[in-house]
From TrEMBL:
Record-linked InterPro entries: Aminotrans_3, Aminotrans_3_PPA_site, BioA, PyrdxlP-dep_Trfase, PyrdxlP-dep_Trfase_major, PyrdxlP-dep_Trfase_small
Keywords, comma-separated and alphabetical: Aminotransferase, Biotin biosynthesis, Cytoplasm, Pyridoxal phosphate, S-adenosyl-L-methionine, Transferase
Residues that, per the record, bind pyridoxal 5'-phosphate: G93, S94, D227, P290, T291
Protein name: Adenosylmethionine-8-amino-7-oxononanoate aminotransferase
Localization per record: Cytoplasm
Positions that bind substrate: W33, Y126, K256, G289, R374
Predominant location category: cytoplasm
Subunit structure: Homodimer.
BP GO annotations: biotin biosynthetic process
Length: 409
């Protein structure tokens, strides 16, 4: 039996620092899984919450609406590429993927093509923990395999092979093209994480792959869902990762950094054409009505977070300088025999270890070194809040190099 990893109690968090119950302070290199872009305990976000709680913490969103939801929807429509101008606010990233899948299925039902209800996803993809979301996660390494037989059966194309920033090989999309061509009568939508495959291996792939996928979806009458739950709001150096390829999806999922990690909220955006078509079907509207949909506190803090992000070009400058620093300071790790690859994109740095290394053993050493990183699978990954100071980021990269050398890694 595998021993469970240690768990560290946190008593407070401020800026880029986590304070443990025993008084130790850790510099956070994880942004609480991509979410906390503005740092913890931010005065402006705290204020937005305090203001909102005085008027209304929650109200049902069926038959009622409210200013925090309307303000947030307007911000999201303005921020995302045209023609994404319809917004569904839900309560977690996984649920926003469920919503996206339901939108696609209802769309084809409304168009009189109910056979189009399956998804084409990518090996190495990750889209969440709920059932439809699990069904489009990597079928081998994701959670899919544990539930094989009870999940909806989907189509899978191989993981994109060409790396971001390296030459494009047209063969990379051949198998995908074959699958979508052969099964387009059954496929409602393609779902993928644009540019960065996150939990399934922290892999950065070529933007041309996305452009080809967009063109193939159009050619075969298939919708494109992009899952930007992890990459949205600037993490890859552009506001949305799709911008690297200059494409726009039919349906876009956002979450995590939407509230800068304050509250659980996610959004699924689509075009007026998809929204109006699916509403014309027998159901008359999207069949989704969760209790905490568009929670006013979460909406208010999300609006404040977006306003903070868009105040100037500070986040672009910050993500660019994090990217440069990660490139400079992680480059030497490739010399270590246990390191298989080092890659950096935007405010994401990845050290991929050889298979022989048990990365879970590294976390306690990182904690002893005063940093918080939680390696997964074969990757040590660093994705700090955008507000991190260069000296704090250096503490993280120094500690990583030191731990790898000391461990004989
Ligand atoms: N999609 C992607 C790309 C993710 O990274 C995640 C979370 N790791 C999800 C979906 C699921 O989001 P949540 O954990 O908020 O349900």
């Amino acid at each position: 039996m595998i021993a469970p990893p240690p768990v560290y109690p946190v008593v407070s968090a401020s800026g880029v620092h986590l304070t443990l119950a025993d008084g130790r302070k850790l510099i956070d290199g994880m942004s609480s899984w991509w979410a906390v872009i503005h740092g913890y305990n931010h005065p402006r976000l705290n204020l937005a919450l305090e203001k909102q709680i005085k008027s209304m913490a929650h109200v049902m969103f069926g038959g009622l609406t409210h200013t925090p939801a309307i303000d947030l929807a307007r911000r999201l429509v303005a921020l995302t590429p045209d023609p994404l101008d319809k917004v569904f606010l839900c309560d977690s990233g996984s649920v926003s993927v469920e919503v996206a899948i339901k939108m696609a299925i209802q769309y084809w039902q409304a168009r009189g093509r109910p056979r189009k209800h399956r998804l084409l996803a990518l090996a190495g993809g990750y889209h969440g923990d709920t059932f439809a979301a699990m069904s489009v996660c990597d079928p081998v390494t994701g959670m899919h395999h544990l539930f094989r037989g009870v999940l909806p059966q989907q189509f899978f194309a191989p993981r994109p092979g060409c790396r971001f920033g390296e030459p494009w090989d047209p063969d990379d999309v051949t198998e995908f093209a074959g699958l979508i061509g052969a099964h387009c009568d059954e496929i409602a939508a393609v779902i993928l994480e644009p540019i960065v495959q996150g939990a399934g291996g922290m892999w950065f792939y070529h933007p041309e792959y996305l452009r080809q996928v967009r063109a193939l979806c159009d050619a075969h009458d298939v919708l494109l869902i992009t899952d930007e739950i992890a990459t949205g709001f600037g993490r890859t150096g552009t506001l949305f990762a799709c911008e690297h390829a200059g494409i726009v999806p039919d349906i876009l999922c956002l979450g995590k950094a939407l509230t800068s990690g304050y509250l659980t909220l996610a959004a699924t955006l689509t075009t007026a054409s998809v929204a109006e078509t699916l509403s014309c079907g027998g159901a008359g509207c999207l069949m989704q009505g969760p209790t905490f949909m568009a929670n006013p506190l979460a909406c208010a803090v999300a609006t404040a977070s977006i306003d903070l992000l868009c105040e100037s070009d500070w986040w672009q400058r910050s993500v660019q300088s994090i990217e440069q620093q990660l490139r400079d300071e992680l480059a030497a790790c490739i010399e270590l025999p246990s390191v298989r690859d080092v890659r950096v994109l935007g405010a994401i740095g990845v050290i991929e270890m050889q298979e022989s290394v048990d990365v879970r053993r590294l976390t306690p050493r990182f904690v002893e070194s005063g940093i918080w990183l939680r390696p997964f699978d074969r990757q040590i990954y660093i994705m700090p809040p955008y507000v991190i100071e260069p000296q704090d980021l250096s503490c993280i990269t120094d500690a990583v190099r030191r731990v790898l050398v000391e461990k004989g890694c």
